[in-house]
Structures are given as structure tokens and as C-alpha cells.
Amino acid sequence: MKISVRFTLLLLLGSVPPSESTDYQQTFPQDIYAVLRETTASLVQLKADMRLLLTQVRQVAFSASLVNTSYSVVGPSATDITLIFKFVVTNIGNAYNSTTGVFTAPVRGAYNFEWTVGANGGTSGAVLVKNSANVFLAYEQVAGFMSSSKAVALFLEVGDVVFVRVFVNSVVFDNLNHHTTFSGHLLFPM
Q1: Which candidate, 65, 180, 80, 63, places its Cα nearest to that of 120?
Q2: Whole-angstrom Cα distance, residue 163 to residue 139?
Q3: Which segment of the chain is annotated as a signal peptide (predicted)?
Q4: Is the peptide bond before 189 cis (omega within 30 degrees of 0)?
Q5: Is 97 found in the same domain as 10?
Q6: Could you tell me if 89 and 135 lie in one domain?
Q7: Angle (CA) 53 55 56, round 5°
Q8: What DSSP string describes 121-159?
Q9: Domain of 173: which CATH number?
């Protein structure tokens, strides 16, 4: 087998005129190993840079409650009210805005959100909103204290917003025990 391959190569090389064979020759540096070392070093650096970028993008998580130490009741109101969770425990990636109460997706992917609303008598209802669409409602109608929780996985594009809104005529309660909360995190980018 080796003889036939060598013979075929010799025939092919012998069939190319000398004037044409030099046109396709490439010049290589004297020290090919130095070039390979430089290329390997560049690839290692690019890989490290990509790992850092992916790590930064994937780190998105927040958790907040309405208040830190005081007592707060939101509602009842004749209109829906966006809850602004002021006491931020975690905000990795800074995607949650504690001034507006809105989470803005920094990366396209699947996210998980949880919200809990506390009620101290009456009706308590809060809906998770994606952009302008109501997603799921946490609702409770009680004589004493109760809370209601929900969770959902959502696909978000970059710039999509998610927030919690109190329904018309509903009341939400919070104090230093953090009964009313809003949390979310990136499950995985897509």
C-alpha cells in the first residue's frame, strides 16, 4: 500500500511542469514552532476572555421586599399600582430597578420569577406582568393575615420588562418580616 501511494505521488509530482510548481509554493517562517506558540497563546487568551464574558452575562439574580423596617400597606386603589420593592437584598447584574420596581432582561434567555403578597385582612391580589401582558396572579381573600405566592419561568428577549402590579381594590401588606417579595434569576441564556 505504501509503495502504491508513493508511486502515485511521484507520478503526480512529475506531471507538473517546473514553471507551474513554484507558483503555488508558500513561504513559511523559519521557526514554525514560535508561530504555533504565539497562536496557542492568543487562543488561550481568547478562551479566557469568552469565559469571562459568559460568566458576567449569566450572573443575573435579584431579590427584594417592599420595605426594610417600617410597616407598609399599598392600596386599595381605583387603578392598578406597580409595586416598588425598595429593600433589595440581592441585585446581581443590576437588572432590577428599585426606583421603578421593574426588572429589565439584560440577556435573551429563560428566567424564573417568584412573588409573594402579604394580606392583613381583605383582598390581596398582585399579578406578574411581562411587558404589558398579565402572566400569573397571586390572590388571597382573608379575614386575618395570609400570604399568596406564585412562580413562573418566562422566555425574555433583551429589554423585556417584568414587574408586579397590585389589582384594583386590593391591599398588600409588608413590614420588617418581609411578607411581600419579588425575586428572579436567569436560568440559562438562549
Answers
A1: 180
A2: 16
A3: 1-21
A4: no
A5: no
A6: yes
A7: 65
A8: EEEEEEEEEETTEEEEEEEEEEEEEEEEEEEEEEEE-TT
A9: 2.60.120.40
Q: Are strands 102-104 and 161-166 parallel, antiparallel or unpaired?
A: antiparallel
Q: Give, in order, the Cα–Cα distances in Å from 183 to each of 89, 123, 189.
A: 10, 22, 18
Please tell me the chain's helix, strand, coil percentages from 3-state DSSP, rounded to the nearest 5.
Answer: 25, 45, 30
Check whether residue 97 and residue 149 sit in a common domain.
yes
CA 121 to chain centre: 37
Q: Distance (Å, rounded) from C-alpha 72 to C-alpha 81?
A: 14
Burial of 29 per CB tally in 10 Å (0-12, 13-18, 19+): exposed
The whole-number pLDDT of residue 176 equals 73
Q: Cell 398582585 sits at which residue?
A: 126
Percent of the chain residues topping a pLDDT of 70: 78
CA distance linking residue 114 with residue 22, whole number of Å: 70
* Between 159 and 13, residue with greater pLDDT: 159
Residues 68 and 160 in one domain: yes
Same domain, 69 and 138: yes
* pLDDT tens digits along 32-86: 888 888 888 888 888 876 776 665 557 999 999 988 777 776 667 777 889 888 9
